[in-house]
Amino acid sequence: MIVKILQKSKTFRAVRYNTNKVEKDKGELLKVSGFEALSGFSELKPQDYINYLSSLAALNKRVVYPQFHAMISSKGRAADKQSLVFLAEKWLMGMGYGSQPYMLIFHKDTDNNHIHIVSSRVDREGNKISDVFEKIRAYRVLNRLVGQDEKKSASEAVSKALQYQFSTVAQYLIILEAKGYSVKLVGDTYNVSKFGELVAKVDISKIHNSLAENGFSQERKAQLRNIFEKYRPLTNAKLLPVVENNLRGAHGKILRYYSALSERLSSDFGLEFVFHFKDDKGPYGYTVLDHAKKNVFKGGEIMALGKFAEVLSTAPHPSLVSFEPYDPVRPGHFPEENMLLESLPLPVMEELYPGSEEGGHIGDFSFGLDIADDIDDEQINGRNRRKKGKPRTNTR
């Protein structure tokens, strides 16, 4: 399961975005709670909900962005709409929104069932619902609900990464970064963190021992070289950046690079490509994570970057750029609210990394649901594609 808190808004535009989905039979309004004052209306319209939420927002003029808009998604159809409603209700309680007026809208126009949540950040007494570390808390609350043990998952990730064949410590770290972890060396130990929380440790000696024990498969290198040579002429190899999309439409830093070729090889052969770059300069090298055979290769040892990809020397024209909202918790691939509401046809690339912070105990619930690969609405991303997670920008 994944959760995303969308960009804040000064108005409650998300109500119309979601009701438009319902009108087009791409969504379904499953639950409305806390709007008792509207019970006397014979026929409720989207503007009625907007007016009510706006009246709450008016109780606290200091809150500049009163709209609360979030999404929760399962992988594929693992969760039906009733399960998502139950999960969303418990999640709202854990986030402090259980007593707030809210709308739950199920979206059925993508490969992954997901539900949108719209509420107000201002309560009936004019108090602001706490947003302290809310992106981190969002995942910690969700993980408790679905029985996700982050420390156990991190321990497994550390152990599995040691089973790969790699030639440098940096290559080992790339495996963990690709899983959404941040790693920091403290003394002789690497601290592995996720969602701002220390979730595992790995002694540098263990990594060095794996370097000595693991040998590289020249046969696999040759096999990948043949695959690259076969698909390179058939697929667009132009490298394009994915950049953060800041407020007011400003273009932020480059998060990573991809190409149609790298995406196809990822999908067909279980490979993951990490292109190394600095600032706004084009990539100067790349690493291949061979998940199918558990290898980490320096890309140039298989095929030189200049031959494998069309590399831009500087940042390209904005028309060539794919946008992603910047999420300080983890690399994001979700659309920001302005993207959702304006229906921009942006080819957003990515996987998801769970992320999160402290919330009160809200019960033990286990849904047995898998992590979703993508919940972006098709109108934003074009057809949903299989995504591959990329580590944060690095220069290894």
From TrEMBL:
<protein>
    <submittedName>
        <fullName>Relaxase/mobilization nuclease domain-containing protein</fullName>
    </submittedName>
</protein>
<dbReference type="InterPro" id="IPR005094">
    <property type="entry name" value="Endonuclease_MobA/VirD2"/>
</dbReference>
<feature type="compositionally biased region" description="Basic residues">
    <location>
        <begin position="383"/>
        <end position="396"/>
    </location>
</feature>
<feature type="region of interest" description="Disordered">
    <location>
        <begin position="376"/>
        <end position="396"/>
    </location>
</feature>
<feature type="domain" description="MobA/VirD2-like nuclease">
    <location>
        <begin position="17"/>
        <end position="145"/>
    </location>
</feature>
<dbReference type="Pfam" id="PF03432">
    <property type="entry name" value="Relaxase"/>
</dbReference>
